[in-house]
Automatic annotation (TrEMBL):
GO terms for cellular component: extracellular region. Its main location: secreted. GO terms for biological process: proteolysis. This is Peptidase A1 domain-containing protein. The lineage of its organism: Eukaryota, Viridiplantae, Streptophyta, Embryophyta, Tracheophyta. InterPro entries: Aspartic_peptidase_AS (IPR001969), Pepsin-like_plant (IPR034161), PEPTIDASE_A1 (IPR033121), Peptidase_aspartic_dom_sf (IPR021109), Plant_Aspart_Prot_A1 (IPR051708), TAXi_C (IPR032799), TAXi_N (IPR032861). Keywords: Aspartyl protease, Glycoprotein, Hydrolase, Protease, Secreted, Signal. Residues 1-27 form the signal peptide. Residues 93-434 form the Peptidase A1 domain. It is found in: Secreted. It comes from Solanum verrucosum.
Length: 441
């Protein structure tokens, strides 16, 4: 999901929904789980894909979306309700799902920084235009509204409230986009990559009748994968054993090759194990998944990480790990140290970025430069970032550093995460990393 900052409140503890039942597809013998395609915003498989855009234009667009998304992790003193962390127009990864009985296909943004899953619903009192038909609950035999006495209708969750004995919601995003409707339950069907569809009954979601803001016509809503109780991963926590993982293919692969895509795994298929795995504690702050970053090494010099004085994130979890932000954001003072150390270590011609998006850039004839080893040191986990994760070609003959300064929020973006299998264990409260060729995973 511009650079500005939203309020953080501690989320309730993980809640397991007793009415939920799920039969998981087994793609392998004795393995209960499923794997779905995770389609990058600029992939040829995405409805957003513009074949006339160059790879450099696609990367520049991703930079702007990254800046836009960062603003929604920050404070906004003018909005009183709990804030979500995305704007629907700027999500990075899409999931194709089906809702209802019989199922209706939709594209929705998959987001680890958001809890509520919602889609536009008839009757639409005031809705944005979408290309696909709008979901009509009256045509589904499995649709039900959720009553005020249901445990899901927790008034302590700031966007939920009771109206006419039905649980309602009002989700306001950081750019004042919003969705308003009924909290309902429905059967969701996912097209698993193992060849069998996975149908999940009684998923709580928002049936939005009033939806306005920066939403675009190729999406129908959001799939919330965050840490709050209404998140899908928490609703099916027992069945997937609190585990999900993803493997993001390199940017150039996602934007040029339609035969490969990133994947997201749930349940046993999400376990990250084997030689080379490192794990670090997961600290959940409201919706967000945060890690404790202790330092970053450039060559043989280690720079202790210092969170911003203005940061809204508690110090024990000082950086958000987010699949929807492209660049990695760090505090300004810390960035100055990073940049100086890199400049002292790189023997190449420094060059200004004409777009002024990136702070540290170099001339390069072949799109690469020699850079020192860069290692991010999380608690109990050292993660070496290959040069392809830290320097990218942003224009012909120009490569730039993919970490940028920010006054208030720190985010580990998806360029730094590419070609790692990254597993979230919400039971053990840890995140695991395994260097992986994600084009083959």
């Amino acid at each position: 999901m511009e650079i500005d900052t939203k309020a953080f409140t501690l989320i309730p503890m993980l809640v397991v929904l007793s009415f939920f039942h799920l039969s998981l597809v087994s793609c392998h013998k004795n393995v209960n789980g499923f794997t779905l395609d995770l389609i990058h915003h600029d992939s040829p498989l995405s409805p957003y894909h513009n074949p006339s855009n160059t790879p450099f234009e696609r990367l520049q667009n991703a930079f702007y979306r990254s800046s836009s998304r960062a603003s929604f992790f920050k404070k906004n003193p003018h909005v009183n309700s709990i804030q979500s962390t995305i704007t629907a127009a700027d999500g990075e990864y899409l999931m194709k799902i089906s809702i209802g009985t019989p199922p209706i296909d939709i594209f929705a943004f998959a987001d680890t920084g958001s809890d509520l899953t919602w889609t536009q619903c008839e009757p639409c009192v005031d809705c944005f235009k979408q290309l696909a038909p709008i979901f009509n609950p009256k045509n589904s035999s499995s649709y039900k509204t959720i009553g005020c006495n249901n445990e899901l209708c927790d008034k302590k969750v700031g966007f939920l409230f009771c109206k006419n004995d039905t649980c309602n919601y009002k989700e306001i995003y950081g750019d004042n986009s919003y969705t308003i409707g009924e909290l309902s339950s429905e059967t969701f069907t996912f097209a698993s990559t193992c060849g069998e569809n996975v149908s999940i009954p009684n998923i709580a979601f928002g049936c939005g009748h009033t939806n306005r803001g920066t939403f675009t016509n190729v999406t129908s809503g959001i799939i919330g994968l965050g840490g709050g109780k209404t998140s899908i991963v928490n609703q099916i926590n027992q069945e997937i054993k609190g585990k999900f993982s993803y493997c993001l293919i390199p940017f150039e692969s996602s934007s040029t090759n339609s035969s490969i895509t990133s994947h997201i795994n749930f349940g046993d298929t999400a376990v990250v194990s084997g030689p080379g795995v490192v794990s670090t504690p997961l600290i959940r702050v409201q919706t967000f998944y945060t890690l404790s970053l202790e330092s970053i090494s450039i060559g043989n010099k280690t720079l202790p990480f210092r969170p911003s004085n203005f940061s809204s994130i508690p110090p024990q979890g000082n950086i958000i790990i987010d699949s929807g932000t492209t660049l990695t954001l760090v505090p300004i003072d810390f960035y100055v140290e990073l940049e100086k150390t890199l400049v002292d270590s790189i023997n190449a011609t420094r060059k200004l970025d004409p777009s002024k998006s990136y702070k540290l850039c170099y001339a390069s004839e072949n799109g690469t430069i020699d850079v020192p080893k860069i290692v991010v040191h999380f608690t109990n986990a050292d993660l070496e970032l290959p040069p392809t994760n830290t320097f990218v070609q942003v224009a012909e003959g120009l490569v730039c550093f993919t970490m940028v300064p920010d006054e208030e929020v720190s985010i580990l973006g998806n360029l730094a995460q590419m070609n790692f299998l990254i597993g979230f264990d919400l039971v053990a409260n840890k995140v695991s990393f395994l260097p992986t060729d994600c084009t083959k995973h």
